[in-house]
Amino acid sequence: xxxxxxxxxxxxxxxxxxxxxxxxxxxxxxxxxxxxxxxxxxxxxxxxxxxxxxxxxxxxxxxxxxxxxxxxxxxxxxxxxxxxxxxxxxxxxxxxxxxxxxxxxxxxxxxxxxxxxxxxxxxxxxxxxxxxxxxxxxxxxxxxxxxxxxxxxxxxxxxxxxxxx
Length: 165
Description:
Blueprint: H1 2-23, H2 25-28, E1 54-56, E2 62-65, E3 68-71, E4 79-80, E5 86-90, E6 94-99, E7 104-109, H3 114-129, H4 133-137, E8 141-144
């Protein structure tokens, strides 16, 4: 009878252990860890604005740039970057840009024929700044064109046509 009692007791203990294990199975399983994924951020380098090398004059609509008095078009540009570069004029044929860091102007011819549009852009530049040819030649002005517009003239930096070499 002791053997029978020991067998029943062992069977009962084994059944209780199996029941306990089966009922608490989640305790032995690894559950997936759910975390909020970090929000991706874009790191944008901040470039401090460049101080404009432009001096106000006693005339409200005039400024001095490179020792030349010009019309103040710098307060109302077409667009302005955070570094103070400014698009002063643009149309489908050319764009006139002021680059603050170099205190210079770039006239970009974006259509063809190059020579006739270049002359038109130079004339617009003079009128825009209300400056004569002599004054314009004292400014740092480069004329360029992209390959898609004028492949034969692309990659060359031209001066204003009325300024000497």
